[in-house]
Design a protein that fits this description.
By secondary structure, the chain is α+β, with helices and mostly antiparallel strands. The chain is built from 2 helices and 6 strands. A 6-stranded antiparallel beta sheet has the order 1-2-4-5-6-3, with helices on one face. Strand 4 (104-115) and strand 5 form a beta hairpin. The N and C termini lie far apart (47 Å).
Length: 149
């Protein structure tokens, strides 16, 4: 049973099709979150990556990890409607196995450190229990509408 479905995720994240890369949240704790991305053959990136051997681009796996982390960060603040979570760095990204249509990507993100408006998280993406990607991401909480200069 999902903790959050895609409609609830859409209330937290500003991303929309085709760039919303988290379909549901299945675990949610204060410092840890697990998201699911169902990878289908209809994904727009498969048209060109690659036509004869469709593989989910690694950068989009990282983006799915960052979006999952963003749900955790935004869920924990009361004024989330006025905030964005921006990805500021990626460290130690490793891709172990291709992610292909039909796979279900399980994304687990855990907070390493959070100070003020910055959070550093470590993440693992698996398919059927097999590690396919891992990385550390840092994100920054920003105002959606910064004050005029």
């Amino acid at each position: 049973m999902p903790i959050m479905d895609v409609n609830e995720i859409r209330q937290i994240l500003p991303h929309r099709y085709p760039f919303l890369l988290v379909d549901r949240i299945v675990e949610l704790e204060a410092e840890r979150i697990v998201g699911i991305k169902n990878v289908t053959v209809n994904e727009p990136f498969f048209t060109g990556h690659f036509p004869d051997f469709p593989v989910m681009p690694g950068v989009l796996i990282i983006e799915a990890m960052a979006q999952t982390a963003g749900v955790l960060v935004l869920k924990s603040i009361p004024a989330r409607d006025s905030k964005l979570v921006l990805l500021v760095s990626v460290d130690g990204a490793r891709f172990r196995k291709p992610v292909v249509p039909g796979d279900q990507l399980r994304i687990e993100m855990t907070t390493i450190r959070r100070k003020g408006t910055v959070a550093k998280m470590t993440g693992r993406a698996t398919v059927d229990g097999v590690l396919v990607a891992e990385a550390e991401v840092m994100c920054s909480l920003q105002d959606k509408n910064p004050p005029a200069a």
